Batch of 2 targets.
Target 1
Amino acid sequence: MSEPRTVIVTGASRGIGLAIASTLAAEGFRVVAVARRSSEAFEAAATAAPAGSMHFMACDLGRTDALQPLVRSVRVEHGPIYGLVNNAAIGTPGLLATMPDHAVSDLVHLNTLAPMLLTKYVVRGMMASGSGRIVNVSSIIAFTGYNALSVYAATKASMIGFTRSLSREVGRLGVTVNAVAPGFIETALTEGMDESERERIAKRSALRRLADPDDVANAVAYLVSDKARNVTGTVLTVDAGSTA
Amino acid sequence: MTMRSTIVAEIEAITRDHDKTMPPLTDDMVLMDTEFDSLCFALLVARMEDHLGVDPFGTMEVADLPVTLGDLVALYDRAAVANAA
Ligand SMILES: NC(=O)c1ccc[n+]([C@@H]2O[C@H](COP(=O)([O-])OP(=O)(O)OC[C@H]3O[C@@H](n4cnc5c(N)ncnc54)[C@H](OP(=O)(O)O)[C@@H]3O)[C@@H](O)[C@H]2O)c1
């Protein structure tokens, strides 16, 4: 059997990122999960996954000087990097007019700047080896409006622009770059939202329900797989038809 | 291998893989005037990082960008020394 290919998934200690990590591990990849700290949920998932398929590396991605060393240690410990899933993000809500400047800047820093720099360091190895997969987690809020999420929305829209143009840059070298745009998914990020709002979103969606983390994980796994070899520069929406 | 021979070997490998025709690789060759385009250059930076563990372009100003092959070799020589220090 050939060696499993290594994929980095950021923000994989919980929520959508953890679902992505488990799904990719089940599909035969060697997953390196990155977050500031591991979690019981991650440890449990790693135990349930095929032996040696889920690894954890602690890193605060907001510390941009830590990104190049992070990529180096992944390569040393786990070999060449085949895939990168930029999933880690924060969702700080706030009306723009009253949002503290540091909250605006933290959102842009972690959700936009960090994935761009991390991709910069990872994509080099992919270019040199002539193959690779990059998946950026955006949001339907990148193209629909949502009160009190303008800064978050801007960071998620940035991932789409980044995806499209980067796919042009690296396509010639066999590297694909795509985005997924989840709709409302129940995770720690959205737990502040009240029950009636949740029901309203479910009722308005074409399928009358909400998508869950596994739905997003399956979309990402498709884009990382060999089956998606001719898919690049695109955005796959996973929202149970909420924006249909 | 000297820094110059490593860089020249990589440039030759990249241009071969990407069907580029290059003039003789002399120190005064101006990279921008050849078929060695920005993508080839990005590949060179990636492969040199593999060899040396350094990337002199991460923190550079545009004004300091190397113009000739000789400048490029000198840049990597300095970066390798700084990294070892
Ligand atoms: N939930 C939704 O409804 C929804 C909808 C559309 C799009 N999305 C997108 O889906 C992605 C995942 O969201 P989620 O709902 O799963 O979020 P979540 O449950 O809050 O998880 C966020 C993950 O990111 C990590 N993280 C946060 N700050 C970090 C930092 N500074 N450095 C490293 N890791 C950090 C967290 O771990 P630590 O805190 O331990 O670092 C955690 O693993 C995000 O890109 C989000 O924008 C979510």
Target 2
Amino acid sequence: MALLEVKDLQVRVEEREILHGLTLTVNEGEIHAIMGPNGSGKSTLSHVIAGKPGYEVTGGQILFKGEDLLEMAAEERAAKGVFLAFQYPVEIPGVATMNFLRTALNAQRKARGEEEFSTPDFLRKVREVSKSLNIPQDMLKRGVNVGFSGGEKKRNEVLQMALFEPSLCILDEMDSGLDIDALRIAADGVNALRSPKRSMVVITHYQRLLNYIVPDVVHVMSKGRVVKSGGKELALELEASGYAQFEDAA
Amino acid sequence: MNVAVAKTGKGRAVSDLFTSAEGRLPGSPGITAVRREAFETYERLGLPHRRIEEWKYTDLRALVGEVLPLAAAPDAAALKRAADAVKAHAIDGAHKLVLVDSVLAADLSDVKALASEAGFKTLRETLEKDADLLKTATVDAVIALNAAMATDGVVLSIADGVQLSAPIQIIHIATAASASAFSRSQVAVGKGARATIVETFVAAGASAYQVNDAVIVSVGDNADVAHIRLMDDAPDAVNVTSHFVTIGANVKYNFFNMTTGAAVSRLQGFITLAGEGSELSANGVNLLQKTEHGDTTLVVDHAVPNCVSREVFRAVIDDRAHSVFQGRIIVRPDAQKTDGKMMTRALLLSDEAEADNKPELEIFADDVSCGHGATAGALDDSLLFYLKARGLPEKQAQALLIQAFVGEAIEQIADDNLREHVIGIAERWLERRS
Ligand SMILES: Nc1ncnc2c1ncn2[C@@H]1O[C@H](COP(=O)(O)OP(=O)(O)OP(=O)(O)O)[C@@H](O)[C@H]1O
Ligand SMILES: [Mg+2]
């Protein structure tokens, strides 16, 4: 069953069209990789799915579990199970990570009509997840992402993903800025979340990540469109030959 | 006398305010003369208005218009409401001194428990002997009016070397609607003493009332004082408060003010560093919504060398509210090696919100390090989006960021318990927004 259906999506930013009719279907339980040159619109797609303001959708639609995602506020999408691990997670000084995690988790649960987590349950859960991701507890006492290294920020995104248990995870260049060990830890964290009910869209420039998180489908994006889709061998092909062959197709 | 002022009182002659109250004001006959003189000063000046430089942004004539008649003594029902308010606003473990419509309510206060640690009298008692407490170095119309009309207050003395075991909390409770209340208090902290004074202003069923408070603080050498003022008066009330603080040598004085209530308010603090080697930390938060007007004015006077002053001020302004921060740092010719800095930031939550910031450095010494900085802006959209993408609704996302913003001032409060108390009040303000 299709979890996410992006149909002929056209998106403008400040009068300039960035996505020119992008189509993408992600079924439940599948892992899709999106590769493509800088500026091809990968982050733009992920932002539009997550509901970031400032993008004007001039055509097409996005369905999530059959519902019109574009009609929903960002927080509603999150509560329904959309999660974007940001390429550049922001720093939020003065908002303690623990407080943020608890507030966010409970806001999502409340929106779904579920009971809020009790403090001990919440703490146990955070401890479990942060341990598996090798995130020290005292990092969680700091402001959200404040003073975190690039790799720590990315791990903090995976931590949230594990905590919120979304049904769609979009990972925007989760591997950028991660050293080899950190990459393995983060990828293990992501793999631990694989389930028949959960789908992932992995945006990356490097085939290496896909050795850890093995995709079912690989898409090539160029100039605001998906120009080719294939199996995991497509990523290897790209690694060998680059994007030049697709520039014309776009 | 100022004819223009007399006419602004809606049909009521200004001097009626005093003559009708005179019989109820405490003090020996000699003191009545001092009061009358103070009232004449007030009559001559009239309510401050925008053409008076210090009141440029807070035009009381336009914002308030007239001074309401003095509140009558509270009845049994009012005292019952006050007792409930005390329960709701008391800080755990603090020694409470409760002023109901500016008159000490002994039954609601912990006078006995306090007696073992601090000297305590009411202003009423003190004024039977001398009028010193009605005099201050700085006088303006509202200060003069306070001297003329002060009905009661607390007069505290903490002896040399005494370390208070608990904070003293002065709770001002308004029970009388459409009336005014005038309080005047004194806190004298002895050498080497350690004290925490908290002042709380709240309403108990009263609306549209006016508060005019004055507090005179003196701090002996080597003392360590935390002074916290939490003004959460009714949303249609007026609160004008003047602080006069004189600080000795090698003192740590940590002041914090938070304004979360009143339609119109002004806290004006006149703080003099009169002994060398002292550290003043004077911080504040204004949380304003609707059409509220909140003014925090601090005059820090470095009269001697080698003192440090730090001011951190945060304003959060919603709807059509108006926040004013005026910070003046005076460095006298002798006050070499002064280190004085203030940093103010305003967060504007609506297009119609207004923030005025007036820093003034008056430096007469040459070997000093003084500065100020100010910013004003809206919430950061990229931070808001991050929080919303994690499931926080707009108002909740804003609330987290607002708490972080004011946290920079609130974290200057050292005591965990008090800090939590203050955060609680800020949270209730945030809940009123949505
Ligand atoms: N807010 C914006 N204002 C103007 N142009 C924008 C904005 N956001 C994105 N763009 C433009 O849209 C195009 C696509 O950007 P996007 O960030 O989606 O690319 P990307 O595929 O994620 O690139 P990278 O691999 O470098 O992360 C770029 O040309 C970029 O300059
Ligand atoms: Mg990108």
